[in-house]
Amino acid sequence: MTNQEWKFTTKDIAEKPDLFTSGHRACAGCGPATVLRLIMKATRGPTIVTEATGCMEVVSSIYPYTSWAVPWLHTAFETAAANASGIEAALKVMKRKGRLKQEHVDVLAFAGDGGTYDIGLQALSGAVERGHDFLFVLYDNEAYMNTGIQRSGGTPLGAATSTTPAGSVLPGKLEHKKPIAEIMLAHEMPYVATASPYYWKDMLTKVRKGLEVDGPAFLHVFAPCPRGWRSDPAKSIEYSKLAVESCVFPLWESVNGICQLSVPSKLVALAPQKKKSVSEYMQGQGRFRHLFTPQNKNLLEEIQRMTDEKWQRLLKKCQTEKT
Amino acid sequence: MTSREKSWKEIAPAGVCSKSSIEFLTGDWKTYMPVRDVEKCTLCLTCVLFCPDGAIRWRPEKGDIEFDYSYCKGCGICANECPTKAITMKLEKE
Amino acid sequence: MKSICKQRLMALSGDEAVAHAVKQSDVDVVAAYPITPQTIIVEKFGEYVANGEVQTEFVCTESEHSALAACLAASVMGARTFTASASAGLALMHEMLFVTSGSRAPVVMAIANRALSAPLNIHGDQSDSMAERDSGWIQVYVENSQEAYDSIIQAFRIAEDVGVLLPIIVGLDGFTLSHSLENVKVLEDDAVKKFVGIRQLPNVLTHEGKSVPFRLDPDNPMTMGPIAFPNYYFEFKRQQDEAMKNALGLIQEVNSEFAELCGRGYGNGLVEAYHLVDAEVAVVCVGSTAGTLKTVVDSLRNEGVKAGLLRLRTFRPLPVEEIRSALASVKAVAVMDKSLSFGGNGGAVFHEVRHALYDVDDRPYVVNYVYGLGGRDVNPRELRGVFEDLQGILRTRRVANLVRYLGLRE
pTM above the 0.90 mark? Predict the structure, then answer.
């Protein structure tokens, strides 16, 4: 892994051309769209992107229009990481046989929580185990949004989705959010990190680190969906801030297995009195509205308790692994 | 099907896209539009970064930002994130 | 007449012959997952890689679905790709088969034809690739290991032709061919490399308004695999069907060119007619059983029976004209199926041959023999019985059963 410190300012990013261009058909206020747009600005080029079926894939590639100014391939829902493996293998052999013009090409895979947690997990795990040189970015809007907001392995406990609605008997999803970043960490891969678009500088630094690392890298990005979360489209970025401030989505990174808390979460750790409650994070999200009724009081408390527990475990982990 | 749609003999195989989405204007989606108070704007470029549609651009040659209403979907993220509250969402008049 | 190229004799099983052909064909990426009875192909290839005999990138994927996805992605990078599978593995790839052909990626895949579960069966029948006949892949079935070797080499040329640009399956019967040692004449490395050549790419118009080679290239970005709504999708499918039509001619050309090079042609590439010129009774067969049938036809001919055999080498695209002309004199045809389309009143080959013959003047009797499912062996005596049944049909002018199960315990 190179120790290259990528220095950039807001103006640097703002001036970079959009490689994920305007005219895509994402909803107004789409979190993933901001995530992808910013991440593409952080690429160092040349880049080849492959993407799993999902919101971002569909909205950016409605024939005959494309929002991609880089080579881009979509094949199926499960296959983001398998495609990345094939592209990377082709680049390697083309270089070996003297047919590659470029010195190096970055392979970048995008997938939503569907194409990562669930149907795409096998291909991701396999590609990482094989050590392909690529960056896999998960844009997590916490449900299968493109097909109508159905629950995924990434849907958090208590969230209402179209397959786990909040009804008179059941209060939304009963299962926990799969700890996908920890699962990837357990693969003992070179680079794993979590990011949130409000903290764009942190996010883009991590993107560059992931691209620069030699071998597989995984970036879990929190990406609010106003449509699926039934929240104000204007607040998508704000929610990505609240998620970190309430420790629902802490920011950390792991370089060769050593975990470090990222600055935004470090600040929360240093000033625990300023840590926000999960209720504050959930306010205004229609998918959690039922949790504020008297009969779901226990569940809400349970969620707060578990969030705190997980946060403490993370703090301990990062403490003990301080280099 | 309009007469200018191409036949199977004319299109590129395998669905290789033939137009950039820049030609697809999403600006008519919005109900509210962002209006900037230039006095309050510090050109921090936060709105430029956070716009999901890249509809706010930093123009270094002008030393200013510009709003491209032909793509803006009126989500209001720019107004919500502006640190000086320089942007307000106003009902778009026809 | 030009002399044929230098070749040497090797003792190879069908799988080994396939692997050897892949080794010589300057393949860029092999992404595969093992499954009986294809395992020897990937194992042999692993040996080549370990010994530095190939420059190929060998990706041992974690499933067949990912294997084909990786091959597809490598192929649209402009790389020459190969994979192999069978049975459940091919079934697992099902979704990706359609994506690959729809993406016009010329992946070459060897299928060591094997029965599908349930119950689990590792032995040879053709239900795996017959079930994929709608997937838009060219399908060529071989009679022996020699043809397996020859057809893999030809496959790269067929698939990569810019007028075709379709993926191709080369089917060899599981265990019967995949694991049986045969004499195989192999060409020299240079001769194969020259025959397969460098992969050519057509030019496509991208969203940048440039006409550039059809591959993922940072210098010429293009978007592949979009969503196409009802107002566009149909046209892409029509293009695929046209490519299949182009393949009919190309398969014949490649067959001739290969025959000129090494002295071996397989009929006209689409079908192989054996003693059909004046045949009155004939069997249509796909795959290795044709070999046994040839000896049966020989002995019947010795007895004065006007028997013949039509081996369908290419199943997709279906060579309708060749089927009609080859069987022009035949009055009773038995179509052999080493697979079964449940509830479909017979097997796939039967359906399609009968369909091809429907429009001929004075069409023959066409009956179906489903045989060999799950690797059940069929012997010359049973096959001789088929011809006797056909003679019976002509005598009585009656078909007792349109679909029969040969070798089944009734």
Answer: yes
